[in-house]
Amino acid sequence: MKDFPPLDSGRGPTVTDQIFGLLYDRVVNLTLPPGAKLSEIEVAAQMGVSRQPVRDAFYRLSQLGFIQIRPQRATTVTPISEEAVLQAYFIRTALEESCIRVATERLTDDHFDALAHLLDLQAREIEAGNRTGFHALDDQFHHDICAYAGLEFVWTLVKENKGHMDRARYLSLSYGADTAFAEHGQILDALRRRDAGAAVAAIRQHLSRIEGIIARLRVDQPQVFG
Length: 226
Description:
Elements: H1 15-28, E1 37-38, H2 40-47, H3 51-63, E2 67-68, E3 75-77, H4 82-106, H5 109-128, H6 131-148, H7 152-161, H8 163-192, H9 196-220
Antiparallel strand pairs: 1-3, 2-3
Helix pairs in contact: 1-3, 2-3, 4-6, 4-7, 4-8, 4-9, 5-6, 5-8, 6-7, 6-8, 8-9
């Protein structure tokens, strides 16, 4: 099992939230791949906490379908579910298409400049081959559009539902980051022109790539699917 760092006991997220967040990220970025075993006792010991917050974090992850808890047997990371990925895609597309329409009306030149700066940072991460860094900036790009439009709650809903989609997308970044980056540029260009139709079309095309990603992963890495 992968080593886990001690937790920061200072002010901030609760212990359970910190454990959940760390495990969530490691499932999404495949540091904890499908089939990986997790021990409540070992995680608690490595992170310097009691077993209860670990148990609570495990339960939250199991509710998302990320891990399977079986009494008297090992807790394991679940395979990627194609059905769960496509459900997340449906929810995310509906939410972000609605948000992008509002964004075309509300975003300012300062907002556009800030988004352009994010694209510059994304380009650097691609050049450095840093999938984790690019993934974080990808999320920030989508988050900031929602936030600048005054609809940050939309991103909260997206984030609650997109985890399964992220697992598949992360695997694709080794060959698909350049495409994702180019599509971010198309989204920003449509926003700058305040062309709602073009912005919706761009975000729809961007998110729909998940279907092609699944098809390719089915061939290249079939072992990650259930």
